[in-house]
Amino acid sequence: MARSDDGRLPRKLYEKELLRLQAELVKLQEWVRSEGARVVVLFEGRDAAGKGGTIKRITEYLSSRTVRIAALPVPTERQRTEWYFQRYVEQLPAAGEIVLFDRSWYNRAGVEHVMGFCTKEEYMRFLHQCPIFERLLVEDGILLRKYWLSVSDAEQERRFRSRLDDPMRRWKLSSMDLKSITHWEDYSRAKDQMFLYTDTPEVPWYVVESDDKRRARINTIAHLLSTIPYQKVEREPLEIPARPPSRGYERPPRDMQTYVPDHAAKLMSA
Fold first, then answer.
1. pTM above 0.85, yes or no
2. Polyphosphate kinase-2-related domain spans which residues (predicted)?
């Protein structure tokens, strides 16, 4: 197999396999819609581990009517008084839907616990309730998958620095992200504790090595597809009809409507 000089998956090989897997994801989408299945996929990991990029490749050719990304903001004051899992329950799929969580209820086991945003009692209650909550989802027929994208400290810092110098990606970096460097060992302990309580036979954690983003995306998508018993759904054949003859319609004059300026024409004439 072709290899790049730095050991990372070569771009051409990656792009070819990614396109093949994305075609399979389209088949999965049709099966989910046809069977009325409900799929939930959680993506967790340290900041800059590659969660967003993996989700983007999964959804690239899928319908937003079937596949939805849940990336919840900081809870409101009202939500802080609710049962912790309540606002996540609202995001769960109905029949024929797939929901991808870009971070999930595991915020409580990670950033909330490490940064002191929840009490010790709330944290321990989460570790107790989470396996029960997930078992209820599975018993109700939801196909639940959990992925932990694992990035090294050196690679995380490299990605932080690249974002800091890139105006197109600077928005992806926050002060809270940078604190993950000084709290590296705290997050490591929190992750180990989280796995101890929530890596269950019913809903196991799947760890993805993500220092090589291309490899991580390919491995995650291939594994996800392998865990769901989808089949190709034969769609009803479609035929584009002949356009009927005109019945006298006349388009209004162009000067009666406001058109977007032809910016592309300026580029071509430059």
1. yes
2. 11-235
